[in-house]
Amino acid sequence: MARLDLRPRSSDAVRAALPPAKLAETWGAIEGQVGPLKAVDGVEVHAQQGMSVVLVAAKFERAELVIRLVVDPAGQVAG
Known about the structure:
Blueprint (H helix, E strand, L loop, with lengths): L11 H6 L2 H15 L2 E12 L2 E10 L3 E8 L8
Antiparallel strand pairs: 1-2, 2-3
């Protein structure tokens, strides 16, 4: 499955807190525990305090997880 690179759509604060090497390390740790991402089964979006909370139902080789992203009004990943 192709990887989605959210860094260009991330806020400056997120890019500073999660530089490319740290993002790769974090994703590698997730895959080390649950295997590679196999599919995205669904996406829900909820408004909360002026932001959009995006819940991504992700199916990995050995587990199903919900990935939570917060998107600001400018469309940038804020958390």
